[in-house]
Amino acid sequence: MIMSLRYFGPTDPIPLKYIRQIPGVKGVVSTLYDTTPGEVWTREAIRSLKESIEDADLSLAGIESVNIHDAIKIGSPDRDQYIENYIKTLEALGEEKVNLVCYNFMPVFDWTRTNLAKLREDGSTVLSYNQSVIDTVDPEELFDTINENAGDLVLPGWEPERIDQIKHLFNEYRAVDNEKLFRNLVYFLKAIMPTCEKYGIKMAIHPDDPSWSVFGLPRIISEKTMLVRMLEAVDNPCNGVTLCTGSLSSNDKNDVCQIIPALKGRIYFAHVRNIRQYGDHNFDEAAHLSADGSLDMFKIMKTLYDNGFDGVIRPDHGRAVWGEGGMPGYGLYDRAMGACYLNGIWESLEKTYPR
Ligand code: DNO
Fold it and tell me: Which atom of ligand 1 is nearest to the CA of 330?
């Protein structure tokens, strides 16, 4: 298991040297933040990212994310060109010996929240989702609110320049239902598998967050059946999953500890965080500790351990604590506490159940 942290590149308020000081954190996952979906990555840019990380005595444990152009998700006539570009990016990553790629297949939006700083009883703030807000707001308004609350920071998945495309994208997705989106995912995966096999690149799809349709858009990677269907449709070891406990558990009908065994051997990356589920389609994020939220983190880690998980793992969104500002969900302190907590659980598992 490789414990890592997400790193937002040279403009990340959390420098690599701080990440290096978290006990047991060996690597980071990152991406080329100055590229847009569909662009071909150069070997030089990848190498420079990798070297900057290695200079800090950490490893580039994987890419989160190489984002997928909407033409591929929609299945537009120009999708083959974008798939070709994606393949070229994979080749460049493979040549630079980067072999874990996280991506998602969510239309238009990546993760969605309605509040980036909900005040908790302990004085910290967390990201939260309230369905009644989504039901009354239009997507453009949400986009503006998210960006206003992000201050000077650019939230991944919510890049301000995307606002101009939103209306157009909603029109394009009108003809795409869940089945079509699924077929487009399979088409994409089949096309990239030979390159992944050549370089030993593991693709790890990130589940939809939250795990239901927002604004009427199709969403397919939201529960066990669909994850399994996706793995079976392209039954290749290079086609795998990012197990995101918080995203899947946004729907309280998803039991992560039942999902893990169904994906056995194909979980290459894990985002492990806790959430507080309440009511239908509402949740707040939480500290990683089991007692702080609705999830049994020990049971989740044990289920990963028992099912032979040996991939890259990272704590996920944290609370904003101790006066820390910065990127919502991605401050240093609570994620560092999360990493230590998860490492502690893992150590006790290794010592109690040597394998
Ligand atoms: C949010 C993250 C997501 C994730 C992408 C993967 O904080 O978990 O943005 O990186 O969905 O492609």
Answer: 7
Taking the CA of residue 157 as reference, the ligand 1 atom at the shortest distance is 9
CA neighbor of 197 nearest in space, from 89, 307, 99, 299 = 99
What would the pLDDT profile of 116-147 be if each residue is shown by its tens digit?
A: 999 999 999 999 999 999 999 888 888 888 88
Does the CA dihedral 140-185-156-41 come out positive or negative?
A: negative
Residue 308 has a CB neighbour count (10 Å cut-off) of 11
Token digits for 222?
């939201």
Residue 345 Cα distances to 23, 249, 305, 339, angstroms: 14, 20, 10, 10
257 is catalytic: no
| Cα 355 to ligand 1 centroid, rounded to whole Å | 31
pLDDT digits (tens, 9 = 90+) for 194-249: 999 999 999 999 999 999 999 999 999 999 999 999 999 999 999 999 999 999 99
Residue 246 confidence (pLDDT): 98
Q: How far, in Å, CA of 154 to CA of 163, rounded? A: 13
Domains and CATH numbers, the chain: 2-111+173-352 (3.20.20.150)
DSSP codes, 121-178: TTS-EEEEEEHHHHHHS-HHHHHHHHHHHTTTPPPTT--GGGHHHHHHHHHHGGG--H
CA-CA distances (angstroms) from residue 320 to 121, 123, 160, 286, 335? 13, 9, 23, 10, 10
> What DSSP designation does 290 have?
G
Task: Please give the pLDDT value at position 80.
Answer: 98
Distance CA 221, CA 206 (A): 8
- In the sheet that holds 115-119, the strands lie side by side as 115-119, 125-130, 282-285, 275-277
Please, which pLDDT band fits residue 353 given cuts at 50, 70 and 90?
A: very high
